[in-house]
Specification:
f41 fragment of flagellin, N-terminal domain, mainly alpha, two-stranded antiparallel ribbon, single chain, about 300 residues, rod-shaped
């Protein structure tokens, strides 16, 4: 029925024009952003999942940095331990000379001078081997466990407080940690010297043949201690290397997963854009035709 009060055809055309215009705008937004989800309404579940994955990726990228820093710490510590091992080898060589019956006491005095300087250098390296200002080989790197080990004030009657490894976060969760434990390589620990100055300890000199002979056994023990410390450092470094490789694999897989969820299919979205553009043009043409039909009705009054 022809009417002039309400242009029903024009209203229908405008409705479809709005729908097609929104589709065109959405396709343009997705193509320009490269993301399939430009608003939560596009895919609410996909947005929630991809956001969680992205947070894990960011955490893993930081975990990779943490693992690299831990590896650097271990490499620096191993370098210091290697120097101490070389010093101990030199100390054993000159101690062997002092322990020989062919060496005179006056010569042993000169040998002992070098021995004492090397002994001091061990402590210098132990305290001077640092990472970001933190000594690594003087026993201060590992931290006391939470709650205060050793029985509270006074160390529980003179007990030595236990230490715990320094934990490094190597994953997206708080439980994904690896501990770093570094040995105390100061001379007092290597030669098992008493911490109480009133207690008698081994003679730390090679001024006499008996003292030099006794020192050979202590040096063997110290060399074994440093060798074990370096082996432990190497084992920890190997673990961090494998962890870094695992982190890289996880990051790549998670990035691929979020790409599947969020990245736009350019070909499909371009096809949708072309379709929307054609529909918009058609709706505009229909709107023009609907308005012209109302003008045609007015001719009935002529």
């Amino acid at each position: 029925m022809p009417v002039i009060n309400t242009n029903i055809a024009a209203n229908i055309a405008v409705g479809y024009l709005n729908i097609n215009q929104n589709s065109e705008t959405s396709a343009l937004a997705k193509l320009s952003s490269g993301s399939r989800i430009t608003a939560a309404s596009d895919d609410a579940a996909g947005l929630a999942i991809s956001t969680r994955i992205n947070s894990d990726v960011v955490a893993l990228q930081q975990a990779a940095t943490n693992a690299a820093e831990a590896t650097s710490i271990l490499q620096i510590a191993d370098g210091g331990a290697s120097n101490i091992s070389d010093i101990l080898a030199r100390m054993k060589a000159i101690t062997s000379e002092a322990a020989s019956g062919t060496t005179t006491d006056s010569s042993r005095a000169f040998i002992d001078s070098e021995f004492q300087n090397l002994l001091q250098e061990i402590d210098s390296i132990a305290s001077g081997t640092r990472y970001s200002g933190q000594p690594l080989l003087d026993g201060s790197f590992n931290t006391p466990p939470a709650g205060g080990a050793g029985g509270g004030a006074g160390g529980g009657g003179g007990q030595t407080p236990t230490t715990a490894p320094v934990t490094v976060l190597v994953g997206a969760q708080g439980s994904d940690t690896i501990g770093i434990s570094l040995a105390d390589l100061r001379s007092a620990k290597l030669f098992n010297l008493p911490t109480d100055p009133t207690q008698a300890g081994p003679a730390m000199d090679v001024k006499s043949q008996p003292d030099a002979t006794a020192m050979l056994g202590l040096l063997d023990t110290a060399i074994d201690t440093v060798s074990n410390a370096r082996a432990e450092i190497g084992a920890q470094e190997s673990r961090f290397n494998f962890s870094a490789s695992s982190i890289q694999t996880q990051t790549q897989n998670l990035q691929a997963a979020t790409s599947t969820i969020r990245d736009v299919d350019v070909a499909a979205e371009q096809a949708a854009l072309s379709s929307s553009q054609v529909k918009v043009s058609a709706a505009v043409s229909a709107e023009v035709a609907a308005n012209n039909s109302m003008q045609a009705l007015l001719k009935l009054f002529n």
